[in-house]
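Project outcomes to date are best conveyed with an example. Our students and postdoctoral researchers have been running inverse folding experiments weekly, and each run begins with a structure described purely in tokens. The record below, which covers 384 residues, was selected by the lab manager from last quarter's runs and is presented without edits.
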């Protein structure tokens, strides 16, 4: 009888129904409470794995493996904490905690965190053990701190107490194992004030006025046309490049942490090179420059980056994002991604010269990136 009551509470009252609204430039996840009909909305975007891989590898070369892993542990804990805060979840009642933890990490597993394929949670000790293989990013870089940080960030938010994590991996990428628990030495405590959802989050992310005047495609369209595919493990690919759904604050948190640690130069070169390497594998070299630019524009529209416009002149390229996913940390990361893709598309190095944002009620958020062909000028250092 107790089990039946718990199952009823979990399935009918607690576990929400998740609906994805997908249209060109905009992907929205709606989480609908089963008992109060409360709706929590989140913007979704997709990104390429190898952009992060390029950044992690560049960081290892500059500051070494241990410091890189520590940095990405902190980034991961911020991302995990921010993800839960954005979801609106509060401390979970103890009698259903185990089922909730398993539910949350199963959702993460479906989004690319394949180290969460096997989940064991000890409710008395607030301890979780995750196991899997081919985990995103670290399968290529061996930097496993990020996922350890994500795990303890999420677990800490759910149990209402600080937890820390360590990785006990073997035979990478086949033997991913993460253990997070409460009674261990503190490694890093996120600054919750920095991660709290800003008051204008919903106004800037969900007020849409302008429509596309041309034929563009959504993420679901790309699946239907077999541009995006899934393998038997559930991993998602654009052509042969692995992609993943990302918490929209993740890129901003990464950029912020790199700037705080005096690693902005590594951030800029690492993301740009990662984007160049990715673009060179997915953009057909036989296409004209105009068609290459159109491919870049259409790709990021389908990935949820908003309404993307790319305007090329003889000496510069301007990328304008209208209604992009808003986060409180800035847009430097996205600018560097476009920098790499445009360098590849134009077969000529371009440099980020200017980054401007505005918050207009009609357009929500408008981002302008200006890139200059040739060598960088004195004004290429762009802050977040």
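After processing, the design step wrote out the following sequence:
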């Amino acid at each position: 009888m107790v089990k039946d009551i718990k199952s009823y509470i979990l399935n009918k009252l607690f576990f929400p129904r998740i609906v994805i609204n997908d249209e060109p430039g905009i992907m929205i996840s709606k989480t609908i409470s089963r008992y109060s009909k409360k709706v929590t909305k989140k913007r979704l975007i997709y990104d390429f794995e190898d952009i992060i891989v390029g950044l992690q590898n560049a960081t290892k070369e500059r500051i070494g493996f241990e410091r890189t892993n520590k940095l990405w542990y902190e980034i991961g804990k911020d991302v995990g904490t921010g993800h839960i805060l954005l979801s609106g979840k509060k401390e979970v009642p103890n009698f259903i905690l185990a089922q909730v933890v398993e539910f949350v990490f199963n959702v993460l597993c479906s989004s690319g965190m394949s180290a969460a394929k096997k989940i064991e949670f000890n409710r008395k000790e607030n301890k979780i053990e995750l196991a899997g293989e081919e985990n995103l990013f670290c399968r290529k870089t061996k930097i496993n701190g990020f996922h350890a940080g994500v795990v303890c960030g999420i677990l800490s938010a759910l149990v209402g107490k600080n937890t820390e994590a360590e990785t006990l991996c073997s035979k990478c990428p086949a033997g991913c194992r993460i253990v997070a628990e409460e009674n261990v030495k503190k490694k890093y405590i996120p600054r919750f004030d920095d991660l709290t959802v800003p008051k204008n989050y919903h106004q800037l992310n969900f007020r849409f006025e302008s429509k596309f005047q041309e034929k563009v495609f959504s993420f679901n369209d790309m699946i239907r046309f077999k541009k995006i595919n899934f393998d038997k493990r559930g991993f998602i690919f654009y052509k042969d490049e692995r992609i993943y759904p990302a918490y929209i604050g993740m890129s901003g948190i990464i950029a912020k942490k790199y700037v705080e640690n005096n690693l902005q130069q590594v951030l800029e070169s690492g993301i740009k090179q990662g984007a160049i390497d990715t673009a060179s594998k997915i953009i057909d070299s036989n296409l004209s420059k105009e068609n290459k630019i159109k491919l870049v524009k259409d790709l990021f529209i389908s990935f949820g980056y908003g309404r993307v416009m790319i305007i090329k002149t003889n000496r510069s390229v301007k990328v304008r994002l209208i209604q992009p996913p808003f986060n409180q940390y800035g847009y430097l990361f996205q600018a560097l991604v476009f920098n790499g893709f445009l360098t590849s598309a134009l077969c000529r190095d371009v440099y980020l010269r200017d980054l401007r944002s505005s918050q207009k009620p009609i357009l929500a958020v408008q981002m302008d990136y200006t890139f200059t062909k040739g060598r960088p000028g004195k004004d290429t250092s762009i802050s977040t």
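The first strand starts at residue 17 and ends at 23. Residues 1-6, 8-13, 361-367, 376-384 have pLDDT under 50 and may be disordered. The training component of this project remains on track.
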